[in-house]
Amino acid sequence: xxxxxxxxxxxxxxxxxxxxxxxxxxxxxxxxxxxxxxxxxxxxxxxxxxxxxxxxxxxxxxxxxxxxxxxxxxxxxxxxxxxxxxxxxxxxxxxxxxxxxxxxxxxxxxxxxxxxxxxxxxxxxxxxxxxxxxxxxxxxxxxxxxxxxxxxxxxxxxxxxxxxxxxxxxxxxxxxxxxxxxxxxxxxxxxxxxxxxxxxxxxxxxxxxxxxxxxxxxxxxxxxxxxxxxxxxxxxxxxxxxxxxxxxxxxxxxxxxxxxxxxxxxxxxxxxxxxx
Length: 276
What we know:
This protein is α+β, with helices and mostly antiparallel strands. 34% of the residues lie in helices and 21% in strands. It folds into 2 domains: 13-101, Phosphorylase Kinase, domain 1, CATH 3.30.200; 106-274, Transferase(Phosphotransferase), domain 1. The chain has helices at 58-73, 108-114, 119-138, 186-189, 196-212, 222-231, 245-254, 265-274, and strands spanning 14-15, 19-27, 31-38, 43-50, 82-90, 93-100, 106-107, 141-142, 151-154, 157-160, 167-168. It has a 6-stranded antiparallel sheet, covered by helices on one side.
């Protein structure tokens, strides 16, 4: 028998009488994603379950259910398709789960740690991410955690993942949930309501990192990083041979401290795509 993961499940376990767990393909602090087989339809899927320590956490349960409802609203080539959501009864309690298409890709953060992308690939990746974000915004959904860890790269293109802390436009801010600190817009630190401009700021950080291999501010403590979001201008982009000037301008426009001064995600996607 396979060793248990942090979710408490093992390989070959049948979830809810339908989904045969095969192997874990991703594990984070809150959840585990399994490659699984849908025994009813005979297809391979991804099944996301909460980590064992969160199985009784009502807030975590609500977030997983909200992620399922959010993804069900979205249809885009660069956003994973949701197939099902359910609550399975297991020994000792119940387990909520989310079933999605399998995306066989590598986290962008892993790729960036290993090599430079080169500006054409960097712009291409970020154009696809911006397109996915724009589609979400058009449906009133704000991702709230756009980062290199939540972008998968595959031969078929980019997939934006993990809508676990997403919200709807103008809903009150969740002051306990900020996403990835390096990508957090300054207004989110002040408790501003959910707004698409925060995702655009994160797109700016992502584009900067993809182009340069580094963040817009020197490495520092968490407190220093959050202070930089509020108070420091990003480092100027270095000279990158062949990089169209409109890409550099767009990157810095996304990083404006004032949310109203940032472009929308659709404009970002269009400008980046046109630069290729």
